[in-house]
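Lab notebook: predicted structure, single chain.

Context: the supervisor wants predicted structures on file for every construct in the current expression panel, including those that have not yet been purified. This is the next one on the list. No modifications to the sequence; it matches the entry in the shared construct table.
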Amino acid sequence: MTGARPILLAEDDAAIAEPLARALTREGHECVIAATGPEALDEVFSGDFGLLILDLGLPGIDGLEVCRRVRAQMPEMAVLMLTARTDEVDFVVGLDAGADDYVGKPFRLAELLARVRALMRRSSNVGDDEVLLDYGDIQLDARARRVIVRGEEMSLANREFDLLQFLMERPGQALARDEIMTQVWGSVDLRSSKTLDMHVSWIRRKIGDDQANRPKHIVTVRGVGFRFDP
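Prediction complete. Output recorded below exactly as produced.
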C-alpha cells in the first residue's frame, strides 16, 4: 500500500493496541499508537493520517471529545471508533460525535480490517474525483465534498456524504442493502445494517426528504434496499 497515509491508533490497552498495530502493518499500513486523548490530539493535528482508529475510553480526554475536536478542525478525517460498550445509546452518541464507523469490543480482526480498508479507500480518493452530480434541486461535488440542496450548502458527516454519493451515482437503481453496506462500510453485519438505516434517516432530514411538500429523493425499496430518484 505504497503512498497511503499512515493510521493513528488511539488505544490505551497495550494488549489490544500492539497486536492490532502489527496486523495493520502486515496489511501494508504504517501505524502510530497514541495511548491517551491528549496524545492522540497532538498526533492527529501535527501529522498527516489517513485514518484515526479511536478508543472510546481513552484516559485524559475520552474518545467522544477527541472525535468532536478532530471533526471540528479536520472534517475530512476518517474516524473508526472502538468501544467495549455496545448498547444503542453509545452507538448513536459515537456516530453523532462524528465517527464514520463503530466497532464493538471484542472485535473480529478480519471484520475490523475490512472496515479499515473501506475507510482508507475513501481517504485515498478524497480530492481525486472530479465528479459533479447535478439533479436540479440537489448537487454533489465529489472533489470538494460539498452538497448543495436548493441553493444551500448542507453539512454532512463523512459517511453520510459517501452514502449519498453512492446512491446519487446510480440514479433510478434499486440498490440492495448488502451492496450498499459492502461498498460504503466495507462489510455486511447487523451493526452496519443498523447504521445504514440511521444514516439514511439523517440524510433524508438534511436534504428535505422528510418534508411533506417536497419530492422524495431517497426511496425505500421494500425487500431490497434503497433507490435515489433524481
